[in-house]
Amino acid sequence: MKLHPVILSGGSGTRLWPLSREQYPKQLLALIGDTTMLQQTARRLDGFSGALPVADRPLVVCNEEYRFITAEQMRATACPDCRILLEPAGRNTAPALTLAALSVRRDWDDGVLLVMPADHVIRDTQAFHRTVDVGIEAALAGAMVTFGIVPERAETGYGYIRVGEETSPGVHDVASFVEKPDERTATEYVASGAYLWNSGLFMMKASTWLKALAQLNPDMLAACESAFEAARHDADFVRIGREAFEACPSDSIDYAVMEKLAGTPALGVAAKVVPMSVGWSDVGAWDALWALADKDEQGNSARGDVMFEGTTGSLVHASSRMVVCVGVENLVIVETPDAVMVAGKDHTQDVKKIVARLKSENRSQALAHRKIHRPWGCYDSIDNGGRFQVKHIEVKPGASLSLQMHHHRAEHWIVVRGTARVTRGDETFLLSENQSTYIPLGVTHRLENPGKMLLEMIEVQSGSYLGEDDIVRFEDTYGRN
Questions:
Q1: Do the beta carbons of residue 229 and residue 76 sit within 8 Å?
Q2: Would you say 437 and 413 are in contact if contact means Cβ atoms under 8 Å apart?
Q3: Domains of the chain and any CATH numbers
Q4: What is the pTM (predicted TM-score) of this model?
């Protein structure tokens, strides 16, 4: 029996816009420290020496929209052998956990799953290890274990867990789950000492989860089993069957199972909670990030090229330009190449309302950054007009774009760094720095980087339509044709 890390990498983090976007959510960002939240989660059990050995291959469940950047970040954090399960549609955390449990049951017969959202921060890793170890015995005995955060303040943004009787050292029955309270009720909860914040962290055997789901939500289990049986392997990924998974009910782990287990031992599966004090935060909004960040003597936190004068209690994140703050207080300022947000620190929960408006107006800033990541590298649309677009393109060593053609645009390519191998129609040739070529409309072409250093290019597109959907792929290394 092993301990299997299960990383749930869904969600869009709308309250951390404009850094977090639907196609590049907060777990893929380096908000605290130099590594991303996903990478920090992947390394969270490093050095664990508890009652069970940690499995060599963590499982990551994520949306197929950001599969390549997820795989790249996992490789960069020394987890190249992780298993990435791709959800063809968002169905919340209970189906995601079910897919992971089915994977463990198939390949390891059974195991203890440690379920960790990819977008949380835990400051005290050693305390986290000790707390996880406390819960392992209960999980091995067939309990469904959750971890409750010992509250530091009256918080209205979290759900709560009412703690029941202590059944073994550090392990309690779950008396009930409680929805997000108002401020007065939250204050009463904290003062009573009987409530914990609901962390979204869980631990149980794969067989325990599947047994409980079979009793409490058999339609969800049947849909996930059908989708898992229809899965196919694609490079680094396991693609879950689309049709069956789209028919799966959408529900959270709490609603689908945990809340129904609290106080109902007749089902044969107990719900347990282990209190945890580990410097935890779900980084739900910019004010939460300010609370976690390192600050100067005036309470200011800065990332990027930032200058303060007469400023207090503020957080500033500058991505591409200098940001200067003079005579302001308690602000959050986030600058990206295509959007700038300025908010009062006590109004950061309302950022999600802006994202909803952007979506309703079909604004691109709701979905993606100006810089778009692809499996072969990335591109940045640095200028555009009615019939032209200019892109800065980076191609990783050894990578290649698809063999493709455009119906509505021609392209000019200029190499500014590295060496490019160009396929244009029936010819193939190399371009070095400061050399260029022209790709006429309707001509089949491909761009490759045959070298060992990054290839950088400027691409000038011209034509009647310049959208990314004007691509006809004939061959593709990454299975996108």
A1: no
A2: yes
A3: 3-281 (3.90.550.10), 297-360 (no CATH), 371-475 (2.60.120.10)
A4: 0.91
